[in-house]
Specification:
The chain is built from 6 helices and 11 strands. It is an alpha/beta fold and about 190 residues long. The protein has one domain: Class I glutamine amidotransferase (GATase) domain (Rossmann fold, 3-Layer(aba) Sandwich). The strands form 3 sheets. A 6-stranded mixed beta sheet has the order 3-1-6-7-11-10, sandwiched between helices. α3 packs across α4. The longest helix is centred in the first third of the chain and has 13 residues. It is globular, with a radius of gyration of 15 Å.
């Protein structure tokens, strides 16, 4: 397996596990992983939120950690990266308002580089207009956005993942083993 350079787009109140687990797992596998947030520099942090499934009508939210960024958003060049990871949480709902974020997402989609989007991360892909004709999954509340942007929303168990071409999607953090395995296969095939 050749080491790849992977970009993770985060923001305040990104889902804790969906940022930290892939960041650490991909580093452990020998990849270079850069976590960036618009308006923040390397060394600064974003606040995370822990979303849990406790039998309520929707997920619960608890304070998470301070996740340290290791690259500066304004300095990155998407063409320097082999793959993109978009965690969920509340961050995607406002990150999708940033034109540069959408431009970065479009770069990875148009170049057919591997993209992993988890939970609410699909909000960025929908806003970037890159889901047309794609079969994807997400947190169920994001399903209407997926369909409105031309994607086909597929409901699957919360611990499973779905790959369509260069895109790996998952409903939430319980799917980490499944989506990370599928994402690694995509990385290894490039």
């Amino acid at each position: 397996m050749a080491a790849k350079k992977i970009l993770i787009l985060v923001g305040d109140y990104v889902e804790d596990y969906e940022a930290m687990v892939p960041f650490q797992a991909l580093l452990m596998l020998g990849h270079t992983v850069h976590a960036v947030c618009p308006g923040k520099r390397a060394g600064q942090t974003v606040r995370t939120a822990v979303h849990d499934f406790e039998g309520d009508q929707t997920y619960s939210e608890k304070p998470g950690h301070h996740f340290r960024l290791n690259a500066t958003f304004e300095e990155i060049r998407p063409e320097d990266y082999d793959a993109l990871v978009v965690p969920g949480g509340r961050a995607p709902e406002y990150l999708r308002l940033n034109p540069r974020v959408l431009e970065i997402v479009r770069h990875f989609a148009q170049a057919r580089k591997p993209i992993a989007a988890i939970c609410h991360g699909l909000q960025l892909l929908a806003a970037a207009g890159v889901l047309q004709g794609k079969k994807v999954t997400a947190y169920p509340a994001v399903g209407p956005e997926v369909r409105a942007s031309g994607g086909e929303y597929i409901e699957i168990p919360v611990d499973q993942a779905l790959t369509d071409g260069n895109l790996v999607t998952a409903p939430a953090w319980p799917a980490h083993p499944a989506w990370l395995a599928q994402f690694i296969q995509l990385l290894d095939s490039r």
